[in-house]
Amino acid sequence: MMASNSKEYTGKRILAWFVGFFLVVFAANGIMAYFALNTWTGLTTDDAYVKGLNYNQELSNAAAQQQSGWEISISGKPEFTEGRLEVTINRPVESLPPIDVTATFVRAVQEGFDQEITLSHNGNGLYGAPVKLPLIGQWDVFIVVKPQNNLIYKLEDWILVK
Q1: What digits encode the pLDDT tens for the residues 120-143?
Q2: Max Cα separation, the chain?
Q3: In a domain, 20, yes or no
Q4: CA dihedral in degrees (145, 128, 159, 67; nearest 10)?
C-alpha cells in the first residue's frame, strides 16, 4: 500500500479556491479602476460645449482661409528638445503681412507642459523662433496667424522630439 501525500479535495477546500480566485480578480480590477479614474481627467478640450456651438463658425473660417490664397506650412521642425521652429507663409501679393504669428506646443498625454511662443519675421515669408521643450516625444503644434484683415489663419500639425 502506497502512502499518498496529496490532500483530499473537500467542499471547504474547493470553496476556498473559488473565493480566493474571485478575490484576486476583484482586487486587480479595483487597482486598475483606481488608476484609471485618478491618473488622467479625460479632458482633452476646455470649453468643449462652447466650441461645439461655434463649430459652424469654425467651418466658415476654414473655408475663408482656404479661399484667401494664404498658405501656411511648417518648414523647419525641432528634432530635439532644443531647436528651432520655422513657418513659411505664402500670401497673395495684395494682402498685408501678418501682425502676429504664434505657435503653441501641447503635450497631449501630460498636462502642465504646454507653451506658446511668438515667431518673428525672418524675410521672404519665413517666421521662426528658438524652441526649448521640456520632454521628448510627440507634441501637437498649433500655428495661429493674425493678419491685418481681422481673419485668423490656423495650422495644426505635430512634431516628434528625440
Answers
A1: 988 888 999 999 988 888 899 999
A2: 106
A3: no
A4: 30
